[in-house]
Amino acid sequence: MPFAIDHAFRNPELLRQALTHRSFGTPHNERLEFIGDAVLNCVIALRLYRRFPGLAEGELSRVRAHLVNRDTLARLARDLGLGAALRLGDGEARSGGADRPSMLADALEAVFGAVAEDGGFGAAERVIDRVFAGLLRGADPEILGKDPKTRLQEFLQSRRIALPEYLIVATRGDAHVQSFVVECRIGALGLTAAGEGSSRRAAEQDAATHALAALAAPGHG
Prior knowledge:
The protein has helices at residues 12-18, 30-51, 57-67, 70-80, 90-94, 101-119, 121-131, 133-137, 148-158, 200-216, and strands at residues 165-172, 179-186, 191-197. It is mainly alpha-helical. It has a 3-stranded antiparallel β-sheet. A hairpin with a 4-residue loop joins strand 2 and strand 3. Helix 1 (12-18) runs antiparallel to helix 6, helix 2 packs across helix 6 and helix 4 (70-80) packs across helix 6 (101-119).
């Protein structure tokens, strides 16, 4: 098996289908993705409900949305090496589909759906718990659900520091697989942090993440 989800499929064809994009042929993974999305949301909702008994419904929804969003799922899929296992049509493969966040996120949900179909809800629950173990272990409701730009803004506002400026300093790659490099500049602190992403927004969020890390380092506060 090309990536580690720790489930022995009784019907390996389900895993094969989960890893098949519609550009490759049929049966593809969209129906399994539908199941996986529902199972994933249910499992994460249960974990958050039990772990944070004091959180209101709206806060639970906010934290869950952060944990199951496209970027988080894509990052987890990359950690599992899922991209190399995807079955894509020639066009999608040539255009970098194996590392496209939306495709990785959809495929990971399809894998969860395949596990649920193969072994039942309990099997999917165990796989999801393992895949999300690190994120759930470090879950902090005060942070989760707030993107890095928002957290950076709140940090600076609480200290009466002017908000940062985000500037595109470079673009890389062809139009269909373009990558943006953005600098987050906090003039009052003389701090500049760079970030990169497949869109301007993603690059800005990455730059804000690095700025927050720099502000948390010794000598800042």
